[in-house]
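Moderator note: this is an archived Q&A kept for reference. The question asked for a predicted structure of one protein chain; the sequence and the answer are reproduced below.
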Amino acid sequence: MNKFKFYLSLGLCSWGSVISAQEKLSKEEAVEIALKNNFDIQVSSNFVKIAENNASIYNSNYLPSLGVNAGANYNDNNNKTTFFAQPDLENNTQVTNYNASVGLGYTLFDGFGRKYNYKRLQELSNLSEIQARQVMETTLLELLTGYYEVARLTENRYNQYRSLEISKDRLTREKYRYQYGQSTQLNVLNSEVDVNNDSITYLDLDRQLANTKRDLNLVLGREITINFEVDTTVNYVLDLNYENLLKASKENNVQLQQAEKNVKISGYDLRINRSGWMPDLLLSSSYGWNDNEFETDRFNNFSVQSQNTLGFAAGLSLNWNIFDGGRTRTLVQNAKINIDNAEIEKERVEKLVERNVANAWETYQNALFILQAEQKNVETNKRNFSRSEEQFKLGQINSVDFRLAQINLLNAVNNYNRAKYAAKVAELFLLQLSGQLLGTTY
């Protein structure tokens, strides 16, 4: 037990010097690091790049296709012809062919399919940006929640340290009183038990704080063993209004914006499928060179002939699938149903967002009320502890009553800290629902 006390006191004495050597991580710095290094944000950014590539002109079928073909062929044939009452005719024919061409193909009209497909790809690109923003908002909320949890545990650990110092001072007093016959051995033992319990609680808080810091480092996308301190001050947004938040959520909420994009995409799917009823008009052209060389051996007489062509060719082709077995009709019907589903989903998300804002607003208001109540409790318990401490020093109350006042103050302070950070997290959740989390005051 003495060794345990020695190591604990050594750790507490060095605590102040360790803090001064640690990194001081502000909220703004944490947000900047997370937006740059967070793994989920990096992946979502890559998905945005993929969507942008898909929405480019190179993936739209608006550009022509250009190809080059070249080849060479060689044929060596032995031919034998048998005649009635005439000698057989035998010859050997060798043919060498060389060819090269440049071909250009372009779709002049495809029933507006590529037009709406291009618009659909652009909407998918916009949708990926909204999804990336949702990832950023979710990550930012997770980051700030973790940051404030580190701040809460930091303050709780400090409060527990102060309480431990009070318990140690009480133990010292009880030992002196016992030596002078003013106290009992039971009071000394109770004081030692309280010191041990406070020490265990402090060490447990220290462990929780270290674990929470590692969790926060993971969200930041950096080495998890980095130690740091946080800013424990909390600034609230004082001009929040329910009607303004509800209006902002209908305009900026990422879930609602995604639902709106899905309605547009479903509309383009319908137009793309309708293009199956329209004809396709294709333009093709080529410029080519062809050379044939013939070498013939006939009755030991050799002759060489060649044929060379060089020219340009162009043509138009019209393809119209008058009836495809009802496939296009089925696709169009299903596309209409998908539009209906997208509209229903949009309406559901609107109601969902409206409900979430209402619930979050009430939670926020309750959190502010609890914060005020806990602040009054802290002030009351501070006065009570101050009087109890003075009476304990004068011997007017016993150590049990003093311990009770000490515990009540510690619980009141910890409850206030929990309420303080819970109110801030509730505020951040409101800002996220209204689409105002990015760029706000943290």
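Archived answer notes: Residues 1-20 have pLDDT under 50 and may be disordered.
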